[in-house]
Request: fold
Amino acid sequence: MNTKQTRTKQIAFLGLGASLALLLSYVEFLLPPLFVAVPGIKLGLPNVVILYVLYCLGIRHAALVSAVRLLLSWMLFGSTMTLAYSVAGAALSLLAMGLLKKTDRLSPVGVSVVGGVLHNLGQILVATVLLDTPQIAYYMIVLTVTGTVSGIFIGLCGAMLVKRVPPAKFFRF
Amino acid sequence: MSKERNWGSPVSGSAKKIKNDIALIVALLALVLLATLALLLLRTEGDRVVVTLDGQLWGEFSLQEDRTVEIRNGDGYNRLVIKDGKAYVQEANCPDGICSAHRPIGYGGESIICLPNKVVVEIRSQNQGQPDIIS
Reply:
């Protein structure tokens, strides 16, 4: 009888997730870059929310939150070109995370590590195409390490969030 | 009761999964180590500096002659210095300053890339026209 209510609650939950992810983008935007010499090294704080939504509701909901977050943060802090990079990275990583989560072989930390590395890979691929410069691919070596490290961090945060803030209990779907 | 969603336990941190996680991380790091080793072993001393602007060839200089080159592209400005068989970007007006923070390059295939100004400085060596390690 309550499917409509559940839907409304889900929409509110996703809105909350999107705004939280946007807020985390802003926090990350304020932080100084970790290494000046290699671009693209970020913690990816908003991905904690994306991972949380992925594990709570599924890939389609996570993609929605991710899309809203990307669009808004691009309009607020991005420049013209950054959207292509972000979308490619986010889409590739979310797709892989969704598939990996389905196989049920890895814990959220492992899933997040793959997400982190593929996020960088997507951006590097776009950069290679847009700039017609295969040399950029060399960055992937460094970015694989940083993607792994940030993936572990994000994965641990996300897993803890799912455990401590189970949506079924807190949001009463 | 309404149709309950089966939440299950999303974070069942079973030992098996954590073992798989660790295997994945180790595999990734091994891959990185391998790639780094391969690049170190395959690198050759470069002898030419090729500058590409917005995907177009802009200039080519010998790595043996010391010189300073100013690369301008609209508002973009990068000052390239070639000295002692190495090339580096001494000054640039790009917002991130990644190119000027890059260490001097001198081996074949090495490059400094300034994304905002669309400048690519690349080292080439004689015995290999284009390093093709990536593809």
About this structure: The longest strand of chain B covers residues 76-83. Chain B has a mean pLDDT of 83.
